[in-house]
UniProtKB/TrEMBL annotation:
Location of region: Disordered: 1-22
InterPro entries recorded: DUF1694 (IPR012543), Ribosomal_eL30-like_sf (IPR029064)
Protein name according to UniProt: YueI family protein
Pfam families in UniProt: DUF1694 (PF07997)
Highest taxon above the source species: Bacteria
Length: 122
């Protein structure tokens, strides 16, 4: 591929994506940035909410990504946690869910840069 073609693609936003499957799995972010990931089956778990509250307080610059379609009405509790802690948040709707897993992530707390946390699940 010609260098000029590649530059033009990137300027238009149509260039190749880096790790698209990983970004789908972690709601638009890379694994290395994930602080906590909550699966669909854990949405109504009180432990998930208390753990997230803790992590939000410990990481004030982190962004909470919530897939509304996967959370159902339960997304409101998580949204309120983000607002109360002062963290940024993003709400996804009609998000492309990873086909690689049977219990996908519905909520991801992500840092702006790599944090490389080994255990991101509850």
């Amino acid at each position: 591929m010609d260098v000029n073609d590649r530059l033009e693609q990137n300027q238009n936003g149509s260039g190749p994506n880096l790790k698209p499957d990983e970004k789908r799995l972690y709601l638009g972010t890379y694994r290395e940035r994930v602080i906590l990931a909550i699966k669909v089956s854990q949405i109504n778990d009180d432990n998930a909410k208390s753990t997230l509250k803790e992590r939000l307080e410990q990481n004030p610059d982190a962004n909470l990504v919530i897939d509304q379609d996967q959370c159902g009405a339960g997304y409101i509790d998580y949204l309120q946690l983000a607002i109360a802690s002062g963290n940024n948040y993003s709400l996804l709707s009609n998000n492309e869910v990873s086909k690689q897993v049977t219990d996908p992530y519905a909520i991801v707390l992500a840092a702006k840069t790599a944090v490389n946390i080994d255990n991101i699940e509850l």
